[in-house]
Design goal:
With about 200 residues, this protein is mainly α. It is about 75% helix and about 0% strand. It contains eight helices and no strands. Helix 3 runs antiparallel to helix 4 (about 90-115). The longest helix has about 35 residues, at about 20-55.
């Protein structure tokens, strides 16, 4: 009887070793940590926006519509609270990404508009904020890439045999990653025509 129990215990241990349960736990925690870093960098960008807006407001005649769009996009983006539990909800993820995309677009329009204001371009405070914003955008990219890589590892584990059996038993479904909102647009090469006048 003791030999049968020991054999059963040994077989169960061997089966559980290859089931991937611990890998799911590790990758789930890594994905939550990576997501927290993404949120941290988005918050850093959101915190910079009021300073940028206040600096730009000081420029006489600056286009108020551009400033309003930046402020509205920031308000919308910061109103969406993405918890790690919501990462498995593709619709919530899509909404969050769209709001962050609007912030990025509004800031891009603001920076393009600034080019028409030489006094603002020469303002050292604005230049410092612009450098901080560019650095933050780079940090967002790095954080998103780390998150994407972690999600990729998790999803491969969830779909590979035999760990996919563990995924089914414990309801570990694949996680949603970041998507590109304008995928069709960016996959089309630009048209260059040097004959236009």
């Amino acid at each position: 009887m003791k030999k049968i129990f020991l054999s059963f215990l040994l077989a169960a241990t061997a089966l559980l070793t290859g089931c991937g349960y611990n890998d799911f736990q590790r990758l789930d925690e890594q994905s939550k940590a990576a997501w927290s870093e993404v949120l941290n960098q988005y918050q850093r960008r959101a915190d910079l926006i009021p300073n940028i807006v206040n600096t730009v407001k000081g420029e006489a005649g600056f286009e108020q519509d551009t400033l309003v769009k930046v402020v509205e996009a920031r308000a919308k983006a910061t109103s969406i609270q993405m918890t790690p539990e919501m990462l498995n909800n593709p619709e919530a993820m899509k909404k969050f990404q769209a709001a962050q995309g609007e912030v990025g677009s509004a800031l891009s329009r603001l920076l393009v508009t600034v080019e028409s204001y030489p006094n603002l371009k020469a303002n050292q405070g604005f230049q410092d904020l612009r450098v901080q914003l560019e650095g933050t955008e780079n940090r967002i990219t790095v954080a998103r890439n780390r998150y994407i890589k972690t999600i990729e590892e998790y999803n491969v584990l969830a779909r590979s045999f035999p760990s996919n059996l563990t995924a089914m038993v414990f309801s570990y479904s694949p996680k949603a990653g970041f998507t590109v909102a304008n995928e069709a647009q960016i996959s089309t090469p630009p048209t260059v025509d040097f004959n236009k006048k």
